[in-house]
Amino acid sequence: MTVDFRTEALMQKHLADARINVELETEGMVLNLGPQHPATHGTLRVVVKLDGERVVSADPVIGYMHRGYEKLTEFRTYPQITTLINRIDWLSSFANEVPFIHAAEALMGVEAPPRAEYIRTILTELSRIATFVLFLGEMALQVGAITPAFYGFRDREHVLNLIEAATGGRFHPNFNRIGGLKIDLPSGWIDDCRRVMKKIFDSVDEFEELVVGNEIFEVRTRGVGVIPPGVGAGYGVSGSNLRASGVDWDLRRDGQPYLVYRDLDWKVWTHPDGDSFARYWVRMQETRESARMVVQMLDGLPAGPVMAKVPRIIKVPEGEVWINTENPLGEMGYYLFSKGATGPFRCKIRSASFSNVSILPWLLKGVYVPDIITILASLYFILGDIDR
Amino acid sequence: MGLVDKGKVPKPLTWLLNYSRKYSLWMFQWGLACCAIEMGAALASPRYDMMRLGVIPFPASPRQADLLCVSGTVTDKMAPAVRRLYDQMPDPKYVISMGSCANCGGPYWDSYSVTKGIDQVIPVDVYVPGCPPRPEALLEGVVLLQQRIQNEDPAERWRGEPIVVGG
Amino acid sequence: MTDAEDIPIVEPEPEPEPEPMPETAARLLAQLEKELKDGIIEAAHTFGDLVVRVAPEAWRKAAEVARDKLECDYLSFVSGIDWMPAPKVGGDEAGGDTSAPVQPTETTYGVAGSDGRFQVFARVQSTTRHHGLTLKVDVDEAAFSLSSWVPVYPGADWHERETWEMFGIDFDGHPGMRHLYLPAEFEGHPLRKDFPLLSREIKPWPGLVDVEPMPGEEPSEEGGTGQGGGGE
Questions:
Q1: Which one of A84, A182, A266, B154 is at 20 to 30 Å from B108 when CA atoms are compared?
Q2: Are A71 and C197 a contacting pair at CB < 8 A?
Q3: Which among A71, A256, A362 is the nearest to C190, CB-wise?
Q4: What is the reported pTM?
Q5: What CATH code would you report for A59-387?
Q6: Least CB–CB distance from A341: residue in C81, C99, C101
């Protein structure tokens, strides 16, 4: 058969390409993601060995944000530590203080007045909303949509305004004191809060339409990074990540009672799939649930003082206690050893993201390179929480 | 250019060069910790928009950036990476140290793994205090840097003479 | 003149009864004792939680029992503690300086006691039964190693690396012990009580130092004690 010279040239080119592919040896490549990388939420470095586009093994290298919290707590007094631990999970700072303050109060036998507990719960849920709203925007950004990221930052500003009006700091409020809170809420805050919650409901609806209903998002996230519940619990994965694998476990309802969650009417959201889409969906529902909880608490806020009587210099009696709470990122706990001094003897900080990230070597095997980014975004860790 | 080299740039041209340089900074934001969120709020949030000052974020690589903004705690493990990326930036480059951790070690001044300030590793032009500084504080830091760029003599910088603050 | 009958007789206060163990803790302890028998050295409870000190040889077995028989499928953490008294670090509370805590100088051990200076403690919880317990084990200072929990709880991998890095305790059977947080060249194990924080040794807490004088002024003579009020 004769062909014209153009087709002949094309055939020759294809044959040449085929020869190259057969003759070239390919070896695995080592790709280094981070520590400075737009998608790793901070200074996480993941060293992946690739075979083509598939990951053969992944090794996260952490420690680029290790500030030595556990050693520092041994050299600081209790009020000084409250300032410091805000900065472990730096997006939802108020929630980090709560388990530590509860641990110190348990050892001292001090109970915060009911109004203080309500306000603490409100601020914790506001921190949760602030973190999750940013997550909803940021995960969409990692998957490729830029607009939700701006929406996330914008909506977070509303909640940060509220937190600033009550505590004086946009994040890192350092508002808890052993025995209660620093001062009471300003006037007009409750109405502002109700208005902002309405905005949050609208904003989550917007995210649902924009992101969850989007075909591309579904294709990129469904079936990606499935964590089976048994494996997840063995690694210590907690929070929304585990609930997205179908495990019905929420420390606000199932752990030792803390704050006022037992008085409220709320629901724990789970999803059976365990993939990245499930993690996004669960967090979205939890944002709505937190907003509903805040509205309930605003309606039922008791009057009274916000600070119990505690001595001026705080000395916590000898003992040890473990308090863990459901923080936005997962289970956060403090094992506090005290010897009666003005500062703890040892304070073990159990942070959620440390365990969430420890599953990465197992989870990333056999995954495509773009899916690494999706998985990292859906696990939602904060570097300060990993490295402390 | 030969003019800059020999220090013979006429004043109006210097003024024009500096004016155009200060309003076209490409910021390589090195967001490490909590200050990165405030920096993100300053850059990406519509409220404290930094792009109206001429500073645009997200260069494709450090080799295209003019301004490095170190925000957050610098640990001893991370410091060599900061140095390496600073060296990869082409001159003239500026550094803003944002937040007390980057200024002096901050609340972790006594930690065994924290570098007490990024100025131990790279030279800093503007320090923005705060923990974290509000986005407006970062904007003020950028404005101060712009004033400094306006009053700079590119010939001296080219020759590598020390930068004199003032004026 | 005092009358003998007027002096009230004060009886010594009876020793407070130790609080009874809560029901969940007692049930867990009973199951553990059945499986481990001699492995348990001491058990106690603190604020509703069960704390059990096991023998070093029974460390791995305790994990297996917790996971299989007690249905504790979730590993919270594994970490260590150094019971040596903390060195004095400045801060003189009698003088009003509350900048750094002054810890007691006698060595005391916590709940469920300890045999020596180092202990490893771990917390496991159950996602189905909503209970949990803390397991403690003494670390022999000569051998300084324990068996690893990685075959039982895969998440123990990183926790054991962290414990080794911070205290120096080795774990047998760990797949690849290396630094987790600190750079590879770091010397020393930071969370041991004899690892000093050099910044605090060189210079005290800044709140103690006088306010920096303005250029041209003389530094004031008095020494301030915090609150920054020493100057002018």
A1: A182
A2: yes
A3: A71
A4: 0.85
A5: 1.10.645.10
A6: C101
